[in-house]
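wait is this the right file?? whatever heres the structure
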C-alpha cells in the first residue's frame, strides 16, 4: 500500500462548497457518485479515510488496467472537467511509466476519445483541466489507470468536478486557481492577492469579481526584481478541444513605463505567438482587454510580465472569460475552412483564374505508366497547367484562392505532381496577394521532387491584411516545359507544424509514426511491411505513399511470398453501434500479376468473418480510394487481407485508413469503378 503524499496539499486543492456537486462530479467522500469500477479489469478502491479512490495494484502486473466508468451524462453547454489526481512511483525513471488516462465515450461512436493522459509522478495532488465541447450526444467518462514497469506505482483520484464554462475561464476565487500555474522564477512570480492575504500596508487593489477586500486576483510585483527584463509567467491550463472566439480579462498596471504585460499562446511544440500587449495609455483602475483567441489544437495562454527594474510596480489580473464569438473590436468576415479549400471534384470551388485565358485546366485522366490519376480518389478531377495546348515560352498560369481574413495564422496544404521538366525548381510557386493586389510575396516554390508523385506541400503564413493565395505555374522555355498538376488544396487555422505534432485522431492511421493499433498474427518476410518510397520490384507497387508522397504505407512484398500466400492486418477492436460504420482507405494495386485485396469484418466471440469488400488483379498505377459502409452492433475488428498473385509483379499497398461510426459522407461512384472512364475524359496532349 502506497502512502499518499502531502495532506496539506489535499486541503488546499479540495474544491470549496462541494455540498451538491454537478452531474459527473465526485469528491469520493462517502461513495463513488455512480462511477463504477469495471469488473473485467483491476478494481478501483474507495479509501474512506483519505476521501479518494485508488487503483488496487496489489497483485497486478505491468500493463494491467483499472477502468472507472461514469454514469451516462450530457453536456449541452461547453463544460470543464477538473480532475485532482496523483501518480506515485518508487522508481525514478521508467521506460514504461504508469499512466492515468481520461477518455470520453460518446453514444454512437465506435471508439473512445482520449482527452488527456498523464504519466509524471508527483509528491502531491495535481489538477488537470479538460475542455468538453457542447454536444447533444450522451456520453460517459472513463478514468483508466495503466500499471507501468515497477509494480510499486500507485494511481489515485481525489476528485472529479464537471462544471459548465471553459477551462480557461477563472475569477481566482477558488483555491485551485482553475489550474492556472505560476512558472517559478527566483525573483518575480505571480501570487494570489486579496482576501486574507491582504495586509494593511498593501498597495494592491480590491479584486474585480466581488469588488471587495474578500475577493481574489493574481498579481506580480517588481520589488524583488534583480535582472533587467526579468519575467513572470502565469500559464493557463492547456485547451483540449478546438475553440475560437474572444478571450477577455481585467488587469491593472502601476507605473506602466517600467513593465510590459504581454499575452502569448504556446502550443505543444513550445511555439510562442504574441496575441496582445499593453498599450501606453492605461487607466489606473481595472482595464478590460479583449483578445481574439483561436486554438484549433491544444494550446496554453501565457500572461507574461517583464520588468525593467525594481520600480516596475505591480500588474494585477482578474476575471478571465471566453466567448465563442469574435471580439467586438474585430470587424469584417470570418474564416471558413470549407470555403477556402477545394478538391476540384465538382468545380473550382471559390478559386478562379485571370481573365486573359485559363492557364489551369480542370481535368480527369485515365492513369497510365506516364501519368497518375487525381489525389482525392485516384479517379477524380484535378488541375493541370502547361499542356502543349496552352504552353508557350514565358507563359504563366495563375490560380487565385478566395479572400482570407487578415491577422490570423493559416496552414495551407496542397498536393502537386510534376511531369516532364528537365529542371523542376520554380516551375510551381505560391504567392500571397494582399487584397488590393499591390503587394505580392512569394511564400513557396517547388524544388526537385520525385516525378509524377503526388507530393504534399505545407506552408504556414500570417498577414495583417486580408489576402489571397495564388498558385503560379511557369513554362520558362519551349525546350523545357512540362506538366504541373494540383489537387486537394486545404486552408486551416493555426500552424502546420503544431497539427503535425499531434497524435492522430482515434480511428485514423496514416502509418507515418508507426502501425497505429493495427496488429498481425505473425510477422515475417511474408507479412505486411511498413515502407517509405518505392518498392524494390519495378512495374509494381507505389512510388510514394498517399499521405504526403514521401511518407509511409503498408504493403506486401510479392518477391518474399509464394502464389496464393496471405498477409493479414487487423484493426484494433471497435465498439458496435446501431446504424452504419464508415471505413475509408487508399489502396494501390499495380502490377501485371496482382492478386487480391480483401476486407473482412470479424465480430468478437464469432469464429467466422464477413467479406466486406474485394478487388482482384491490377487496378491502377494510382492510389485509389476504397469506401465501405457496414453495420455492426457488436465489438469487432476490420481485417485487410492481401493475397499474392501469379508473379512477383503483385505488390499490394494500403494507406490513410479511417474507421468511423456513422454513414460515409461521400458515396463511391459505382459507375466510375465498372466503366473505367468510358466518358468524360480529357484528352491532354503533352
Ligand atoms: Ca476575483
Ligand atoms: Ca481531386
Ligand atoms: Ca502514409
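ok assuming it is, sequence goes like this
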Amino acid at each position: 500500500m502506497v502512502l499518499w503524499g502531502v495532506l496539506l496539499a489535499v486541503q488546499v486543492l479540495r474544491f470549496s462548497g462541494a455540498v451538491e456537486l454537478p452531474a459527473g462530479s465526485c469528491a469520493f467522500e462517502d461513495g463513488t457518485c455512480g462511477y463504477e469500477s469495471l469488473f473485467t479489469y483491476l478494481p478501483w478502491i474507495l479509501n474512506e479515510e483519505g476521501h479518494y479512490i485508488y487503483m488496487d495494484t496489489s497483485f497486478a502486473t505491468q500493463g494491467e488496467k483499472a477502468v472507472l466508468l461514469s454514469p451516462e451524462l450530457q453536456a449541452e453547454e461547453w463544460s470543464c472537467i477538473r480532475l485532482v489526481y496523483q501518480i506515485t512511483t518508487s522508481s525514478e525513471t521508467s521506460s514504461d511509466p504508469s499512466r492515468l488516462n481520461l477518455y470520453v465515450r460518446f453514444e454512437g461512436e465506435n471508439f473512445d476519445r482520449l482527452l488527456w493522459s498523464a504519466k509524471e509522478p508527483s509528491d502531491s495532488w495535481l489538477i488537470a483541466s479538460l475542455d468538453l465541447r457542447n454536444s447533444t450526444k450522451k456520453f460517459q467518462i472513463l478514468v483508466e489507470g495503466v500499471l507501468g514497469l515497477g509494480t510499486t506505482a500507485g494511481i489515485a483520484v481525489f476528485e472529479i468536478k464537471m462544471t459548465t464554462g471553459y477551462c480557461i475561464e477563472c475569477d481566482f476565487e477558488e483555491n485551485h486557481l482553475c489550474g492556472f500555474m505560476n512558472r517559478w522564477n527566483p525573483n518575480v512570480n505571480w501570487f494570489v492577492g486579496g482576501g486574507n492575504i491582504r495586509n494593511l500596508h498593501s498597495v494592491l487593489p480590491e479584486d474585480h469579481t466581488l469588488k471587495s477586500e474578500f475577493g481574489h486576483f493574481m498579481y506580480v510585483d517588481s520589488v524583488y526584481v534583480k535582472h533587467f527584463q526579468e519575467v513572470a509567467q502565469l500559464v493557463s491550463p492547456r485547451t483540449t478541444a478546438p475553440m475560437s472566439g474572444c478571450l477577455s480579462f481585467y488587469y491593472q498596471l502601476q507605473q506602466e513605463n517600467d513593465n510590459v504585460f504581454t499575452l502569448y499562446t504556446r502550443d505543444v511544440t513550445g511555439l510562442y505567438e504574441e496575441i496582445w500587449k499593453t498599450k501606453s495609455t492605461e487607466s489606473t483602475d481595472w482595464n478590460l482587454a479583449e483578445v481574439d483567441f483561436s486554438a484549433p489544437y491544444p494550446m496554453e495562454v501565457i500572461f507574461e510580465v517583464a520588468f525593467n527594474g525594481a520600480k516596475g510596480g505591480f500588474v494585477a489580473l482578474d476575471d478571465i472569460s471566453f466567448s465563442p464569438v469574435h471580439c467586438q473590436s474585430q470587424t469584417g468576415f470570418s474564416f471558413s475552412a470549407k470555403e477556402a479549400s477545394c478538391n476540384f471534384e465538382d468545380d473550382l470551388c471559390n478559386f478562379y483564374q485571370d481573365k486573359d485565358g485559363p492557364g489551369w485546366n480542370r481535368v480527369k485522366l485515365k492513369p497510365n505508366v506516364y501519368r497518375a490519376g487525381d489525389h482525392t480518389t485516384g479517379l477524380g478531377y484535378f488541375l493541370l497547367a502547361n499542356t502543349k495546348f496552352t504552353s508557350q515560352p514565358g507563359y504563366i498560369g495563375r490560380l487565385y484562392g478566395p479572400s482570407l481574413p487578415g491577422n490570423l495564422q493559416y496552414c495551407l496544404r496542397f498536393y502537386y505532381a510534376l511531369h516532364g521538366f528537365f529542371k523542376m525548381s520554380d516551375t510551381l510557386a505560391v504567392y500571397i496577394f494582399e487584397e488590393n493586389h499591390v503587394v505580392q510575396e512569394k511564400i513557396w516554390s517547388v524544388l526537385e521532387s520525385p516525378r509524377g508523385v503526388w507530393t504534399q506541400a505545407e506552408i504556414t503564413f500570417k498577414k495583417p491584411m486580408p489576402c489571397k493565395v495564388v498558385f503560379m505555374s511557369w513554362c520558362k522555355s519551349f525546350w523545357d516545359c512540362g506538366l504541373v498538376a494540383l489537387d486537394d488544396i486545404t486552408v486551416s487555422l493555426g500552424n502546420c507544424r503544431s497539427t503535425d505534432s499531434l497524435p492522430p485522431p482515434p480511428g485514423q492511421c496514416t502509418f507515418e509514426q508507426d502501425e497505429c493499433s493495427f496488429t498481425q498474427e505473425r510477422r515475417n518476410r511474408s507479412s505486411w511491411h511498413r515502407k517509405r518510397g518505392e518498392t524494390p520490384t519495378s512495374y509494381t507497387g507505389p512510388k510514394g505513399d498517399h499521405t504526403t508522397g514521401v511518407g509511409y504505407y503498408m504493403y506486401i512484398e510479392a518477391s518474399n511470398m509464394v502464389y496464393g500466400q496471405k498477409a493479414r492486418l487487423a484493426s484494433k477492436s471497435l465498439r458496435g453501434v446501431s446504424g452504419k460504420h464508415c471505413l475509408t482507405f487508399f489502396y494501390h494495386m499495380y502490377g501485371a500479376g496482382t492478386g487480391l485485396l480483401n476486407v473482412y469484418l470479424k465480430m468478437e466471440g464469432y469464429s467466422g468473418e464477413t467479406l466486406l469488400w474485394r478487388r482482384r488483379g491490377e487496378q491502377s498505377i494510382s492510389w485509389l480510394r476504397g469506401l465501405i459502409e457496414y453495420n455492426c452492433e457488436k465489438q469487432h475488428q476490420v481485417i485487410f487481407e492481401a493475397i499474392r498473385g501469379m508473379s512477383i509483379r503483385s505488390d499490394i499497398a494500403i494507406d490513410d485508413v479511417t474507421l468511423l461510426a456513422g454513414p460515409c459522407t461521400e458515396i463511391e461512384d459505382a459507375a466510375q469503378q465498372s466503366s473505367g472512364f468510358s466518358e468524360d475524359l480529357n484528352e491532354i496532349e503533352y
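Helices lie at 7-13, 496-500, 670-675. so i think its the right one actually
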